[in-house]
Structure formats: C-alpha cells, structure tokens
Design goal:
Blueprint (H helix, E strand, L loop, with lengths): L1 H14 E2 L24 E10 L9 E11 L3 E12 L2 E15 L5 E15 L18 E15 L3 E7 L5 E4 L5 E5 L2 E8 L1 E4 L2 E12 L5 E10 L3 E8 L3 E9 L4 E10 L10 E12 L11
C-alpha cells in the first residue's frame, strides 16, 4: 500500500504541479498575497519548514524563506523563496514583491501588490518506483525554468482584513521528447478574510478563512480560530475541508522573535499510513520603523 501511495505522490507532484499548502499561512501571508507586503511597520524575515504525511515515502516537504517590509510611507518590498519536494520532483520558486498602499478611509487601507520571478522544476525519475520502467515518460530527467507573474490585493483596518490574489497568472505544460505531457501548472486563486475580537485587555480572538481555487480541482477551504493571550501566546485550531484537522501554537519569545508550530491530522484516508504533518515557523523583526512599542501583529 505504501509503495502504491508513493507512486501516486510522484504522479500528483508532476502531472498536476501545484503550489504547496501551509497551515500557518497567517504568519507567512506574503507567499500567498503580494498585497500583504509591507502592511506592518516592521521589516520582517521568516523561515518555515513543513513535513507532510510523515512516514510516507515520497511525501511533500517544503521550506520557505520570506523577507518583507515597508520602505517609505506607502511602498512595500519583499522577497520569497520556496523549495518544495514531492516524490521524484523538486520545485524552487523565487519571487520579488512590490506593493503600494492607498488610504481609503479613517482606519482602512488597500495595498495592491505584484510579484515576479522564476519557477525551476526538476524531476529525477531514479527516485521513483514504477510499474513500467520502460515507459518513455520516465526515460530522462527533467529540468525546466518558467517565469512567474502574480497579483494581490489586501484590504484591511485595525481589526479585520480581506484579500484576493494569485501567485501566478501564467499556466504552462511541459512535454517530453515524445510529446507526452509530464506536468501542467495551473493558476491558483486565493481569497482570505479574518476579524480580530478584543475579548478582554489580555485576550484576543481571531476567526479566519482562506480558500484556494484551481481550475479542474476541488475548492480548498481552510477555517481557523486563534487566540492571542497576554500578547505572548497564540493558540488555535484549524480545519481544512475534507483534508485535515490542525492544532496551532505560537510564542512571542521577545518583541522581535516569534516561533510557531502546527500539527495536522489527516482526514483523507491516509491517516493509517502516516504520522501526521508538522510545520514550524521562525519569525524575526529585523527593524521596526515605528520607533515605538506596538502590540504583536495578529494578522
């Protein structure tokens, strides 16, 4: 069974190449929405590591690096780099981000962003196990670089936010020498929203929603609920429809350093063949342009 699942993972990672998913996307929003770039006063860097379906050969493993912040009063700049492995495939995405913020009301702002970069896909068929080793689609390895162009909008106030974005407008297919399709890349569209409730001076509550739309694939819906306690500890639960149930915990170790962890329990029928998914994120404030003490950002 595990061997069969490994083959399926190799197939899914190549025939329908898609962007990785994140449980702690709320701490890594620039990866999904370029409009988020620079919306806080801080200039921040974060590193995320995700190991999905631990114990299953060929399961997804993702690392990401992000640095982003405000330069001037209205301009946000950022850089993201993602390394994603699944089965025999490795995908590296590097993007530069630019955002411009518009004041739309007394407490509301609209940040419009673009991202551009490159997608580098490599497939090493020697890492897979196949029923038919003579199939020409597996006869030679693949290395392909493709451009990325995306757009994002992030509309927010002190207590709520709405976002819409795509990480890449450019669809593409890759074929081998026999004109057989190896992988296709489809645009993904994200819609997000959340609201922060001040339950007391020491307790905040934030429900949030993220949806992902891909042509020809089921809608992905993430629902989360997080609490911020004493401006030091984040605790929450999340549910990805028909996919996973997650527990999240985060700690503000200082005014500049945050660490977060998430555990996903699979609901897809694979729960008997893996030990769940683990995700950890480290976030560091490089410098604070506000020059004054601020409460921790909760979105």
């Amino acid at each position: 069974m595990v061997a069969s699942l490994c083959i399926v993972l190799v197939h899914l990672g190549t025939k329908a190449q898609q962007a990785p998913q994140y449980t702690q996307y709320m701490y890594n929003t620039t990866v999904l929405n370029s409009g988020y770039t620079g919306t806080s006063a801080n200039f921040e860097a974060n590193v995320l590591y995700r190991s999905q379906w631990v114990g299953l050969d060929g399961a997804p493993e993702t690392q990401s690096f992000t640095v982003q912040g405000r330069t001037g009063e209205k301009i946000g700049l950022g850089l993201t780099a993602i390394n994603d492995n699944i089965g025999a495939s490795n995908n590296v995405r590097v993007n530069g981000h630019f955002a411009y913020e518009l004041t739309t009301g007394a407490t509301t702002k609209l940040s419009l962003g673009i991202n551009a970069g490159a997608d580098i896909l490599s497939i090493d068929w020697s890492k897979g196990v196949f029923n038919d080793d003579l199939d020409p689609v597996f006869s030679e390895n693949l290395n392909k670089t493709r451009p990325i162009v995306g757009f994002g909008a992030f509309f927010y106030s002190d207590h709520w936010y709405l976002g819409a974005s795509t990480d890449n407008f450019l669809n593409s297919e890759i074929y081998n020498d026999d004109d057989r399709e190896v992988t296709d890349r489809k645009s993904q569209y994200y819609f997000m929203g959340g609201y922060v409730f001040d339950l007391s001076p020491s307790l905040k509550f934030k429900p949030a929603l993220l949806t992902k739309h891909i042509a020809g694939a089921p809608l992905t819906v993430d629902i989360s609920a997080n609490f911020l306690i004493q401006e030091k500890v984040n605790l929450g639960l999340a549910y990805r429809y028909d996919d996973a149930l997650s527990a999240l915990a985060g700690f503000h170790l200082s005014s500049k350093f945050f660490i977060g962890y998430a555990y996903d329990y699979s609901l897809t029928g694979l729960e008997n063949y893996n030990d769940g998914s683990h995700e950890i994120i480290l976030k560091f404030t490089v410098f604070d342009r506000s020059k004054r003490a601020l409460s921790p950002r909760f979105f």
